[in-house]
Amino acid sequence: MKAYERLIKYAAFPTASDESCETCPSTSEQLVFARALADELKGIGCTEVELDENGYLFATIPASAGLEEIPTIGFIAHMDVSPDVEDRNVKPRVVSCDGGDIVLNEELGIVLSEKEYPVLEKYRGKTLVVTDGTTLLGADDKAGIAEIVTAAERLISNGSVRHGRIRLGFTPDEEIGRGADRFDVKRFGASYAYTVDGSSFGEVDYETFNAASLRVSVRGKSIHPGDAKDKMINGSTPRRLPLSISDFCRRSSVPNTPAAIRASTI
Question: Which of the following is catalytic: 80, 87, 140, 147?
């Protein structure tokens, strides 16, 4: 099966995460997809396929004979999709990108405009997987899962590419900032790992933001804005807060990172 065919198959699973839910995973639909994915991994020949109670799915591509002792590398992708857009009843289809606009839904007048999305110019002459414009596709990050599983199938079925032990990891709740919370690094057992969740062909990011958040509550006197002239005080005025947001950022242990963090393309 090709990677795009897997993406289309995976798009049928609704897996949106839910920030308001404190369980892990935050939605039961993610577990439904994880179980189906576990069965598929077993079917293509992966070993040590394990799905834990928190919805983290790990598997192994065994090392080629004689390469069992070299460092293990890992590949990771997340199973959930954004909860901000409808992810049920996805209608994916393959289209050719020949230049110009791509009509997603003629009846509703939904168009993928090259003017609005100039990135389409980069993909002239290629095929794209799109929806009918009424739902998200879920390629973030089901495309990453499809790529990993397809590569795993080829490595296992074609022994001509020799490699060390490879670990695969599929996680829940990345879209709501919890994807790494219960990831068991020791059990995963990789010396190095790559997250397959990017955008451009051949691009490798070697750093990322940490998804930390700050929630601030300010206690004061309520007043209606309609008659608040010369009375209302800006609640975000740093001198009136014990610790301003800018102070918090400066005092955090996370080092400043330059805006340009992408490595050279490969």
Answer: 80
